[in-house]
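Researcher: I'd like a candidate sequence for this fold, 655 residues long. If you have to choose between options at a position, lean toward the conservative one.
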């Protein structure tokens, strides 16, 4: 008896489903892609319970002929390619003929479709891979497919599913990418009774961006348009000042297909070069069109990854095209820049409003006027923004002079803004004075070991050695010495540590320090982020931030602790929100620590800043008073030391 046999179709499909149908979002992806391939101009997606209960997709595409309905559910059944030559010229999203049979192997599927305009069509029902109903029935032109009880016959996969919110997050993320890749299709997404996305299908990408990321974001976008012999690039990238703390805002599309590609992401990031702060990412939606023979889409079961045959040409082309747009933008004077902090939309439905079409060459006279007016309004709204730089400098000087005034309450702060600079920015006030730090010197060897272990931030450390300042190197490192040897101190890391400990203590009683804002800060999120955030608002209260839902995608900060780093409040709360959204298990200690790190990064001096001798000494004093003066909050070393013996060895004075 032969031992090897060919598996029957049903098992083969279940195996394929393991790859193709990873989670509800994969079903949505496959079905919506089928609708797009069928030429639909309207696609409605309705999911229940994160898609695990039901996924229903209705389109007005070509429909399926009655006799093809059963065939469509066979493995490798497709209308999109015929021979292996076609495989290298793919113009459709699907072509593997795997989606329908895979889905039908792990769920209950009902298909209603018509390819004619006479109101008749066919219905079929498949359960666990078996055809249970097939009948002619009235149906409008197009396809309506419903997938129920996903993974009902694969309990192991079902168990692996995360929360409904997580599954919904994947679905909406995918739907956003589809909407961004196809602004010409009217797309709706509903979850249970809530509408999460609605686009108009009028081809205006900027309006889709507004529907997903909010109108403020859309106003901060610059158009990109470029082509060469092989590629045609189009889309939008955000102004360098409009950034996010993660890469999720970057969507790359090749010939109508949303893909993930490291090289393209890097090219986009490089185009911004030094224009972006560290760890900040742009918002970008970019499509490259190229001849289908230049891209291999048959490298990934879900076709999320592709290979380019001319990647050496593609990446520099993308980078340079974006860079050109950004460079031109930087040359436009500040006063005519768009009002990024302008009015908000409280609706997540794509609206019929008009964005001035920004041209990279310049702005029209009327636009400039409108923008100047908006800029003027902005200046009024933030009375001290003009004096920011001066104030920052004064704040810094005062901090390092060590003469810290006592923090007045909010009302007085409005009147005498100059008085509060110190505490907000550097946070030395209220920090215990250095104690017994001169009583014990630390062995450089020990300090080095401490540096290597990124020890718990709050474990007690041996006291910091007494040091005498020698100077500053390249505006970045302080050089100091004592009897034991030579020390290099990263001034930014040191400052971050000092600030971190200050803020960590402050976050211990944030609520008492929370002050009502005269002008509330508004923040916008994607519809699915907004839905999740609504359930997590109580976490913000724990750290003194009163955030309220303001309708649709918009939230409003009513109050926050007065000691938040000045001028950075909005970005800070945005980053806190991104953390809160991304974290599966939030606890107060982690939230307090994360918030302190974010505050300290924002408030700290950067490298390449010359310090006076007094400032440098103050910094060393404050560092010495820290509980953990050896590593910055990110775990990087603050101090590197060479013992006198090390130096002697280096110079071969001893052997
Ligand atoms: P593929 O998309 O790779 O061809 P699928 O299993 O997803 O494979 O679909 C099989 C076939 O069913 C498609 O080739 C197409 O002819 C037909 N089909 C599926 N969904 C639709 C739809 N929404 N509208 C029209 N035809 C469809
Ligand atoms: Mg398909």
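Model: Candidate sequence:
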């Amino acid at each position: 008896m032969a031992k090897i046999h060919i598996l029957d179709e049903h098992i083969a499909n279940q195996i394929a489903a393991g790859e193709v149908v990873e989670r509800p979002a994969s079903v949505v992806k496959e079905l919506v892609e089928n609708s797009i391939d069928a030429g639909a101009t309207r696609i409605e997606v309705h999911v229940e319970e994160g898609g695990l209960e039901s996924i229903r997709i209705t389109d007005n595409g070509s429909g399926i002929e009655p006799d093809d309905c059963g065939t469509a559910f066979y493995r490798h059944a497709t209308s999109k390619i015929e021979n292996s030559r076609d495989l290298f010229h793919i113009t459709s999203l699907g072509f593997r003929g795997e989606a329908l049979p895979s889905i039908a192997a792990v769920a209950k599927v009902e298909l209603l479709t018509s390819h004619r305009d006479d109101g008749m069509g066919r219905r079929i029902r498949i359960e666990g891979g078996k055809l249970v109903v097939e009948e002619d029935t009235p149906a409008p032109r197009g396809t309506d497919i419903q997938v129920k009880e996903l993974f009902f016959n694969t309990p192991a996969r079902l168990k692996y599913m995360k929360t409904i919110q997580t599954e919904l997050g994947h679905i909406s993320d995918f739907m956003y990418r589809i909407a961004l890749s196809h602004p010409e299709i009217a797309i709706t997404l509903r979850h249970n009774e809530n509408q999460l996305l609605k686009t108009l299908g009028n081809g205006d990408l900027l309006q889709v961006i507004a529907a997903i990321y909010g109108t403020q974001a859309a106003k901060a976008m610059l158009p990109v348009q470029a082509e060469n012999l092989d590629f045609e690039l189009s889309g939008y990238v955000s102004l360098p000042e409009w950034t996010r703390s993660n890469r999720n805002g970057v969507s790359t599309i090749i010939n109508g297909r949303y893909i993930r590609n490291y090289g393209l992401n890097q090219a986009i990031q490089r185009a911004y070069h030094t224009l972006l702060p560290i760890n900040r990412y742009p918002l970008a939606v970019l499509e490259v069109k190229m001849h289908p023979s230049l891209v291999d889409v048959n490298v990934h079961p879900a076709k999320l990854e592709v290979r380019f045959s001319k990647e050496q040409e593609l990446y520099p082309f993308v980078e340079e095209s974006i860079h050109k747009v950004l460079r031109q933008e930087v040359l436009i004077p500040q006063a005519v820049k768009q009002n990024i902090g302008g009015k908000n939309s409280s609706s997540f439905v794509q609206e019929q409003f008009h964005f001035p079409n920004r041209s990279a060459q310049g702005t029209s006279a009327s636009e400039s006027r409108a923008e100047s007016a908006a800029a003027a309004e902005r200046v009024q709204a933030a009375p001290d923004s003009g004096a920011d730089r001066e104030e920052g400098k004064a704040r810094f000087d005062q901090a390092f002079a060590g003469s810290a005034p006592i923090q007045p309450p909010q009302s007085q702060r409005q009147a005498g803004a100059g008085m509060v600079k110190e505490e907000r920015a550097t946070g030395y006030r209220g920090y215990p004075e250095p104690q017994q730090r001169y009583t014990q010197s630390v062995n450089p060897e020990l300090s080095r070991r401490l540096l290597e272990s990124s020890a718990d931030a709050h474990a007690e450390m041996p006291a910091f050695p007494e040091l005498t300042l020698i100077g500053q190197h390249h505006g970045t490192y302080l050089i100091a010495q004592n009897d034991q040897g030579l020390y290099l101190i990263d001034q930014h890391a040191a400052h971050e540590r000092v600030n971190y400990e200050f803020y960590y203590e402050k976050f211990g009683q944030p609520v008492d320090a929370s002050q009502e804002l005269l002008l509330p800060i508004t923040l916008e999120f994607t519809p699915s982020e907004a839905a999740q955030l609504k359930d997590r608002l109580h976490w913000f209260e724990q750290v003194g931030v009163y955030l309220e839902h303001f309708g649709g995608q918009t939230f409003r900060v009513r109050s926050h602790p007065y000691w938040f780093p000045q001028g950075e409040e909005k970005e800070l709360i945005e980053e806190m929100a991104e953390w809160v959204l991304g974290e599966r298990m939030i606890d107060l200690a982690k939230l307090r620590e994360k918030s302190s790190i974010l505050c300290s990064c924002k408030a700290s001096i950067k490298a390449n800043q010359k310090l006076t001798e007094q400032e440098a000494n103050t910094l060393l004093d404050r560092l010495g008073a820290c509980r953990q003066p050896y590593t910055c909050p990110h775990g990087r070393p603050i101090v590197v030391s060479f013992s006198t013996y090390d130096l002697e060895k280096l110079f071969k004075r001893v052997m």
